[in-house]
Amino acid sequence: MPIRGPNRCNDQRRYQNADMRTFGSRLKAARKEAGLSQAQLARTVGMSQGNLSDIENNHVPTSTFTPKLAAALGVEALWLAEGRGGKRRP
Fold first, then answer.
1. How many domains does the chain contain in total?
2. Residue ranges of the HTH cro/C1-type domain (predicted)?
3. pLDDT grade, residue 16 (50/70/90)?
4. Is 78 inside any structural domain?
5. Which of 17, 47, 83, 85 is the most exposed place for a label (fewest CB within 10 A)?
6. What does DSSP assign to residue 60?
7. The domain containing residue 63 runs over which residues?
8. What digits encode the pLDDT tens for the residues 47-90?
9. The CATH number of the domain where 63 resides is what?
10. Is the pTM of this model over 0.85?
C-alpha cells in the first residue's frame, strides 16, 4: 500500500482558517480581495496608511475606524471586528 502525503487541500483550508483569527488578518484579506492598497483604503476612510499597517500586522487589536473600514470593503463590521456572523453585507 502506498504511503500518502499530507492532504494539501485540508492543510490549505486549515491555514486559511487559522489566518482569519485576528482583526488584522481579516482586514488584510478583505482589502486584498477588494483590490485596494493600504494607501487607497486608508485614504478612503480618513486614516493614515501607517495606522492601517499597524492594524493589519496585529499591533493594534481594534480600531474606531472599523465601521468605515467595513463599509469601504463591503463586509460586515461584526465579521471584520470579531470574526462572527456573515462576511458579506446583504
1. 1
2. 27-80
3. very low
4. yes
5. 17
6. S
7. 8-82
8. 999 999 999 999 988 889 999 999 999 999 999 999 988 777 66
9. 1.10.260.40
10. no
